């Protein structure tokens, strides 16, 4: 009868990779030396603390022990793919997690291509992580990095990185963010969530210019309204960003945007009137090459309508426009104590510019409520374009799906 020693190691490793979680993998590796060798020599690990049994008294120590053995005692040619997840890790996290990342980024021990870290510990990212020449895909969820990433000139050298996702992260200054972007020449996807990329005291602008970039997502992020901000990368297909951070200070804000498709996330339910005044009054937008504009969650007050109208007036190549209004806005606005103090959008923004949207072929608005600012946007679009009111090109529907496109309310505005 064949023994475990007769089974090729790569077959055993394939079996280990099919196990549902780290708990089963650790238990299986204890059955024999051969299985332990298979477990300790794999290229791919997904170590998630949530799969460790709840009856263990010290979850942190159990998780840390497993990661220690894999990272520091690995017996194979090197780890290529590593996922670490423990959102409540708070024991000795600063030193220990930093040591894990430092070891994983070392070419002497591993050949890391993909790293996914979601650790709830105060975390210092080691310098070696941002000089890992084999890394292709990096996701860092840093729950407790209040100090911010400090990346000096020359500190970043990620020549093969193509996908970068940072969550709950911050940067010491806009210069450090610029150094990160410039150190990733082949970057194709940049996805930031709840990340501050600049601070109020910053004076240096940001320019995302890598020719390899295809998709840029700023989800719930801040800071880019503090400094002059440009996306000049020539091949960006889509830029997703938060409208509330378009402008924050006098000389800040989005100044250039080369993306073909833009998705504007109106991600604050209520923008206080003083803040809205800053955004609308300070927007200085040059002509952009936007062909597709998607506005999500618009609260059709004067401030948000003003932001959208600025973009429309600056997008002569626009071909497709989609606006989805926030469903809750009628109720919330009705109880907002400041509703009468929202800033008046400059009147010139509502004035049609005949021929300005001559390339527009489709315009659809969803969750229409009859708000006057919604109607003003519709009026501007129809009078500045050659679009006709037919179902293939134009549509205005409420949240129940009722079509308002040819109603007197719309037609009377023209």
UniProtKB/TrEMBL annotation:
A Pfam family that the UniProt record links to this protein: LRR_At5g56370
Upper taxonomic lineage: Eukaryota, Viridiplantae, Streptophyta, Embryophyta, Tracheophyta
InterPro entries listed in its UniProt record: FBL13/AtMIF1-like, LRR_FXL15/At3g58940/PEG3-like
Domain of life: Eukaryota
Chain ranges of the F-box/LRR-repeat protein 15/At3g58940/PEG3-like LRR domain: 98-265
UniProt feature coiled coil, ranges: none
Protein name according to UniProt: F-box/LRR-repeat protein 15/At3g58940/PEG3-like LRR domain-containing protein
């Amino acid at each position: 009868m064949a023994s475990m020693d007769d089974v090729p190691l790569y077959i055993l490793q394939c079996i280990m990779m099919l196990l549902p979680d780290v708990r089963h993998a650790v238990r299986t590796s204890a059955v024999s030396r051969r299985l332990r060798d298979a477990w300790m020599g794999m290229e791919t690990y997904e170590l998630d603390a949530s799969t460790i049994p709840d009856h263990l008294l010290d979850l942190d120590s159990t998780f840390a022990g497993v990661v220690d053995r894999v990272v520091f005692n690995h017996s194979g040619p090197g780890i290529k793919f590593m996922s670490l997840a423990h959102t409540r890790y708070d024991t000795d996290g600063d030193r220990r997690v930093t040591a894990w990342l430092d070891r994983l980024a070392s070419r002497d021990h591993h050949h890391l291509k993909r790293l996914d870290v979601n650790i709830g510990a105060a975390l210092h990212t080691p310098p070696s992580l941002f000089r890992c020449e084999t890394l292709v895909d990096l996701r860092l969820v840093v729950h407790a990095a209040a100090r911010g990433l400090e990346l000096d000139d020359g500190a970043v050298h990620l020549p093969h990185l193509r996908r970068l996702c940072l969550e709950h992260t911050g940067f010491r200054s806009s210069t450090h963010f610029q150094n990160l972007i410039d150190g990733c020449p082949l970057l194709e996807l940049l996805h930031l969530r709840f990340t501050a990329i600049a601070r109020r005291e910053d004076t240096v602008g940001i320019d995302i210019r890598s020719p390899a970039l295809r998709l840029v997502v700023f989800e719930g992020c801040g800071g880019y309204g503090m400094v002059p901000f440009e996306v000049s990368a020539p091949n960006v297909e889509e830029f997703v960003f938060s409208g509330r951070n378009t402008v924050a200070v006098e000389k800040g804000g989005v100044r250039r945007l080369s993306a073909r498709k833009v998705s504007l996330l109106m991600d604050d339910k209520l923008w206080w009137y003083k803040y809205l005044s800053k955004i609308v009054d300070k927007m200085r937008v040059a002509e952009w090459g936007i062909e597709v504009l998607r506005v999500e969650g618009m609260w059709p007050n004067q401030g948000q309508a003003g932001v959208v109208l600025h973009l429309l007036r600056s997008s002569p190549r626009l071909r497709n426009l989609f606006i989805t209004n926030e469903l809750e806005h009628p109720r919330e606005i009705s109880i907002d104590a400041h509703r009468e103090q929202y800033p008046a959008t400059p009147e010139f923004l509502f004035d049609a510019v005949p021929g300005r949207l001559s390339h527009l072929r489709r315009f659809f608005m969803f969750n229409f409520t009859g708000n006057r600012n919604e109607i003003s946007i519709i009026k501007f679009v129809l009078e500045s374009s050659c679009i006709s009111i037919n179902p293939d090109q134009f549509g205005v529907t409420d949240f129940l799906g009722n079509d308002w496109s040819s109603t007197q309310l719309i037609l009377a505005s023209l």
